[in-house]
């Protein structure tokens, strides 16, 4: 018990003798979190199914308990450890979905609670200028501590509610990954020879294939969870299907005017983002072409 709230504000934010316990600390994000907190000068503990330290023991020894476990097991872990977390501690998570996890963290603890979602993966070299979404749950002081720590490291902080986060993620992650998965699935169904197709690659095709390769090189159960466990993705997926069907029908009918009109309307919707997208992709393409290994 550190009695940290008795310290003055300045030393509170520089408090280095806190113990940060990471459940799932052997995993991809977990390892990233260990280096983040250790670089910031904190002591860390890790627990998972493979460690001798059990999640429950870690929870009792830590001032901050971080949950970095797959979304489909986070519920049972919160129910197990929640009641044993000290009231003056902080329980936070990094799950890609927030509503259900936040409800359970608040229900099973008396401690402070913060829901977080780092909007980057564990392979990110520097987290500077990346964004972390924060959902305040309970307790202002720990919220100030975390916000300051992230800002000190140059991380952008977006504060929102769990519901708004999940609704936004149904587009930012749900729709984006769905379209990449659909692209790969279509290529698989058409039996496209990827290596051969690359001999004809335009920069945009190369970029799309890179995104496809990147998705399938990563943690596939995470992509499953993002698509299946976020209830807002269902409506997004249905709308995506209708949109693809409409476009495919126009192509099938060979109606040039109708297709051109459709493109114009969508272009108006994209609006002011058109020149931004053009500029940023031009820069990316130049970098790709400058790198001799790319093509
Ligand atoms: N990867 C990303 O790009 C990314 C980005 C943002 C947020 N996140 C979030 O980060 C969290 C972890 O994702 P990840 O990619 O790091 O997954 P991961 O590499 O599969 O790691 C999962 C960790 O949880 C542990 N674990 C699994 N089941 C457990 C159980 N029943 N009890 C205790 N520990 C258990 C695993 O260790 P053992 O196998 O040893 O038990 C491992 O340490 C998820 O909530 C995800 O939404 C991930």
* Strand order in space, largest sheet: 2-1-3-4-5-6-7
Strand content is 5-15%
Structural class: alpha/beta
CATH architecture assignment of the largest domain: 3-Layer(aba) Sandwich
Helix content: 55-70%
Supply the number of structural domains: 2
CATH class of the largest domain: Alpha Beta
Distance between the termini: 57 Å
Describe the structure.
The chain has 295 residues and is an alpha/beta fold. It folds into 2 domains: 4-160, NAD(P)-binding Rossmann-like Domain (Rossmann fold); 164-290. Helix content is 57%, strand content 13%. It contains 13 helices and 7 strands. The chain has helices spanning 9-13, 28-39, 55-61, 71-81, 99-108, 140-152, 162-189, 194-198, 203-216, 220-228, 233-253, 256-270, 273-290; strands at 19-23, 43-47, 64-67, 90-93, 112-118, 131-138, 156-159. Strands 2-1-3-4-5-6-7 form a 7-stranded mixed beta sheet, sandwiched between helices. α4 (71-81) packs parallel to α5. The N and C termini lie far apart (57 Å). Mean pLDDT is 93; it is low at 1-11. Residues 23-24, 26-30, 48-50, 55, 68-71, 73, 77, 94-96, 118, 121-122, 219, 222 line the site of NADP nicotinamide-adenine-dinucleotide phosphate (NAP).
